[in-house]
Amino acid sequence: MQKKVIIASFGTKDEKAAKDIENMEKRLSSLSPYPCIFAYSSHVMTEAGDKRNIEEVIRDNADNEIIIMPLLIQKGREYEKILSYGFKTAAPLLGREENIRRVAGIINGKLEKLSGVKYLLIAHGEEGKKNEEFEILNSLLRSDIRLRTLKGSECYKSFEIEEEVIHVIPFLLFFGHHAKHDIKEVLVPYFKKQGKIVSMIEHGILQEFPELSEIFESNFTALLKENDSLFS
Fold it and tell me: Cys-Cys crosslink for 40: which of 11, 163, 184, 225, Cβ 3.0 to 4.6 Å?
């Protein structure tokens, strides 16, 4: 039996986002003493580019010992689906409270405090699901920085912003469909119609806050240490 690592991202059909995912996958695989397989966890993304769906990869490696490194932000439905496969799995970006504190510190330190400006971090969110990680993160961010979502109880449409100027930052790992369509083409015009002055960062948080990549690395290293005496 051989040990193998599946590095799983949600997936994208966007060429630029796919390249950014590939760079992160290579960065993580360089830390692994075991062969790494790259897969998409979303059924919508099956056979997108050169990656297969994670369930197909698992079936093809039924005789191997598998551990999974997910490229996800939160403990949402996508993470729960990966856990349901029954393999040892690393935490997502906000999977531990110490990581949430680290994320907040990075963001607070990077974004300059400007009078009359609201920084709006926009995550995807999920309908009918309250996210405790986002609540904790919001409690640790400065008052001029708020995290809101495209869907769910923290949806940006449910909150009023008093500041005249809004800097929108997609709280997504990579700048794919949701960032280009749901944020740039829908959210930004929504606030402009309210008379707001809106600017938007056009890349994901791993580019805007590169230190966040180190959290994925530490989560991956922790998984490897937990699963092999080589790292003990």
Answer: 11
